[in-house]
């Protein structure tokens, strides 16, 4: 049996637990994932729906299904943070990695829709690294 880990939204009103056993970790660079995250890519883990349980705030979760691409987003209606959702075929629970409170365990990872990667994202490959905001 696998251990359970927890996750939550930024405001803490939506909380969940899930088995810490994920089949896949996708970094998706598609245009829709960039739009929904406001970032270079989405970071989603795919787990077994049977191992997932809402512990708070399920009623304030909103879901958006993008037409014609099988793309979904779920978020806390209070703070807008991405939260888990059942994929459209009901075969996996999709967990935004940033919503987890603990490090996940996964068996495989891939960058997907990499051909759609934003040109500005390539700057990150050579960007200077700081532990916090750089001092002026």
What do these coordinates show?
With 136 residues, the protein is mainly beta. The protein has one helix and ten strands, in the order E-E-E-H-E-E-E-E-E-E-E. It has one helix spanning 31-37; strands at residues 4-8, 15-19, 22-28, 42-47, 52-56, 61-66, 71-76, 85-86, 93-96, 109-112. Strands 8-9-4-3-10 form a five-stranded mixed β-sheet. The protein starts with a strand and ends in a 24-residue tail after the last strand.
What fraction, in percent, of the residue positions are helical?
Answer: under 10%
Morphology call = globular
Largest sheet: 5 strands, mixed
Secondary structure tally, helices:
1
Record the SSE blueprint:
Blueprint (H helix, E strand, L loop, with lengths): L3 E5 L6 E5 L2 E7 L2 H7 L4 E6 L4 E5 L4 E6 L4 E6 L8 E2 L6 E4 L12 E4 L24
Parallel strand pairs: 3-10
Antiparallel strand pairs: 1-2, 2-5, 3-4, 4-9, 6-7, 8-9
List keywords for this structure.
10 strands; 5% helix; five-stranded mixed β-sheet; three-stranded antiparallel β-sheet; mainly beta; 136 residues
What would a concise description of this structure say?
With 136 residues, the protein is mostly beta strands. The protein is 5% helix and 37% strand. The protein has one helix at residues 31-37, and strands at 4-8, 15-19, 22-28, 42-47, 52-56, 61-66, 71-76, 85-86, 93-96, 109-112.
């Amino acid at each position: 049996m696998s251990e359970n880990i927890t996750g939550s939204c930024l405001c803490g009103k939506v909380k969940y637990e899930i088995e810490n056993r994920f089949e896949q970790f996708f970094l998706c660079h598609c245009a829709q994932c960039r739009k929904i995250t406001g970032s270079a890519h989405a970071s989603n883990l795919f787990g077994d729906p049977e191992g997932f349980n809402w512990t708070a705030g399920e009623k304030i979760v909103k879901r958006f299904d993008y037409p014609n691409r099988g793309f979904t987003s779920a978020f806390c209606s209070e703070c807008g943070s991405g939260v888990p959702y059942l994929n459209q075929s009901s075969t996996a629970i999709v967990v935004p990695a940033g919503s987890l409170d603990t490090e996940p365990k996964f068996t495989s990872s891939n960058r997907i829709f990499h051909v759609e990667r934003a040109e500005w994202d390539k700057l990150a490959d050579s960007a200077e690294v700081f532990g916090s905001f750089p001092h002026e």
